[in-house]
Prior knowledge:
TIM Barrel, binds zinc ion
Amino acid sequence: MDTTPLTVDQIRQAPKALLHDHLDGGLRPATIVELAADQGYTALPSTDPAELGTWFAQSADSGSLERYLETFGHTVAVMQTREALERVAAECAEDLAADGVVYAEVRYAPELHVDGGLSLEEVIESVLEGFRRGQDRAAEQGNTIRVGTLLTAMRHAARSREIAELAVRYRDVGVVGFDIAGAEAGYPPTRHLDAFEFLQRENSHFTIHAGEAFGLPSIWEALQWCGADRLGHGVRLVDDIRGVDSNGSVDVSAAELGRLSSYVRDKRIPLEMCPSSNVQTGAASSIATHPIGLLRALRFRVTVNTDNRLQSQTTLSTEFAKLSEAFGYGWDDLQWFTVNAMKSAFLPFDERLALINGTIKPGYAQLKWAI
Ligand SMILES: O=c1[nH]cnc2c1ncn2[C@@H]1O[C@H](CO)[C@@H](O)[C@H]1O
Ligand SMILES: [Zn+2]
């Protein structure tokens, strides 16, 4: 019996793992309105939560990463106190857990949250405390989730080494890795080589936003100069695969991989793909033509992610539902993406294995059996 496409409600029941989600791209619109009032921030485009949510989605739907990123001015503006950071982090954990996410890595840039006088350490500790609270509250509601933090440095700024040092300092209390984000064109990852080399010497983990708004050279630098463990997005990797026609479809048996895409597939380098976000920034023209279809068919280590739930008005279940509709993905595919994500998490091996064997596989077995 063909049960595809799967619905959002069905997918919400499935245990899922999320590797790429921005804390400042996932606030509840009503929370933004309340925090703005508390902190005296008067520049919001609307104080009606529904209207504000629509404003974020429409403004982010710009076809350009730079304009998409402008919307973060408002979320970051209301995340400048301990209380605000704790609340946003707690709600993030609760919202992800309610969507059936059992493991999440949530990222944010501490350097963007010091305008109200907090130190970088205070920012990090507030967010960690918020995640702890949110995980506890989710557990009380019957949703178990584990949240790890990635500390992001902004690629146009010059604080990456400092942020990388903090990622190492807080690694035993909830910070699991490091990332760089922000406008990609003009800011190659090698600008931050010092930070990446430091992390490598410290046996630490990091991912790099690459191949989203800029092409193959960015991916190549991220891997071969900086040593990234994973790639944020990586959609432009398809530029290194021949036999792809203009709408992204391909005869998989005829696809020819270039050196870089071969390397990525051979080394099982995880791709943190974010379909809706990519359509909004113009990195992909539609979900149906998104490179994820090809890369999954070619068995790259693809994972599915939300990027910014507020700007994309999405959840991880919604992303999977869109993919199920576009590509006919069923439970086996969802399990495959989820196991890929869990294998690629910045958690110790035994803990990844415990989640795969103790939570993810039994969860999918039950769903498949129920049909
Ligand atoms: O898709 C993306 N590409 C690059 N940068 C991003 C993306 N989404 C969010 N940010 C940037 O990351 C910062 C920390 O979370 C956000 O403030 C935003 O500027
Ligand atoms: Zn991102």
